[in-house]
Amino acid sequence: MNDQASKLRSLEKRRVHQVKVSNSVRVIAVTSGKGGVGKTNFSVNVSIALQEMGKSVLLIDADLGLANVDLLMGLNPKFNLFHVLAGQKSINDIILDGPGGIKIIPGASGLYNLANLSQTEIDGLIKAFNNIDLPLDIIVIDTGAGISKNVMSLVRASKEVVVVTTPEPTSLTDAYAVIKLVHKDVEKIHLVVNKADNFKTAEATAQRLTNASLKFLSTSINYLGFILEDKTVFRSNMEQVPFYVRFPSSLPSKCVMNIGRRLLEGELDFPVREQTVGGWIKKFLSFMRK
Ligand SMILES: Nc1ncnc2c1ncn2[C@@H]1O[C@H](COP(=O)(O)OP(=O)(O)OP(=O)(O)O)[C@@H](O)[C@H]1O
Ligand SMILES: [Mg+2]
């Protein structure tokens, strides 16, 4: 019996080791059509929630225009992907420790011209991502607003995307435009309704979008839930502490916790094939060059 148990344990160890070696993860890009709908707040806080639920999470600030994940956490990064590309730092040097044990790759506002990288630089970047020396389960990518090539390539390269919308019609139309652009490349499209004033508005918003996607794009959307509009979000942003940490029993924190749970339940309900970190960046760069 004991012998069998120790065999099982060593098998399990080997399995964990294999997962680490292949660097296989869930890559989840967070996007929206319209700006200012709460992507960065969602990305930061859901990352902390997922980490609290036992996952190892890396949050990448991929807003190449106005990088600001670090601002929401009061971090002051000295180095970013720019320094990795320039060969001044290794990727492991620039990864920061964030709240709740999450890891962060800070944003690099100067990386607009990723489309123009030389082959050597591309190979360097892929190698850098393959060399991330961390046991990771989930990568959350906070993207910029809009449907620029940068943003769409980041999303298309990821197997999963969370589209964030508010109940406002303009935000909803823009969210639909994003879904229309990426639904053929992405394996699973999730939806979060942010800044909802109540459950009913959120449900109606989600229904409108899921119905339209099913009817016109034959794409089913996985509604993860909503986040209520609440002043604790503004207050925590002012204090530069994520609301999940600063106001853990606030309504937005409870909403984020539910969404985190839904994301993990999804691992059983509709398993998404994992990707390797290097494979993801390779795919992203190839979309950029198309
Ligand atoms: N649930 C919420 N309740 C109240 N205010 C919120 C909520 N979510 C976000 N906000 C506010 O909305 C504003 C935009 O939030 P955030 O920066 O997260 O959006 P974003 O989508 O990342 O913006 P951008 O498109 O510029 O990257 C902030 O002022 C934030 O405090
Ligand atoms: Mg943002």
Automatic annotation (TrEMBL):
GO cellular component: cytoplasmic side of plasma membrane; cytosol
InterPro entries (alphabetical): AAA_dom (IPR025669), FlhG (IPR033875), MinD_FleN (IPR025501), P-loop_NTPase (IPR027417), ParA/MinD_ATPase (IPR050625)
SUPFAM superfamilies: P-loop containing nucleoside triphosphate hydrolases
Keywords for the protein's UniProt record, in alphabetical order: ATP-binding, Nucleotide-binding
Pfam family, one: AAA_31
One GO BP: negative regulation of cell division
Coiled-coil blocks: none
Location of the AAA domain: 26-184
Keyword Cell membrane: no
GO molecular function: ATP binding; ATP hydrolysis activity
Protein name: Cobyrinic acid ac-diamide synthase
Organism in which the protein naturally occurs: Thermosediminibacter oceani (strain ATCC BAA-1034 / DSM 16646 / JW/IW-1228P)
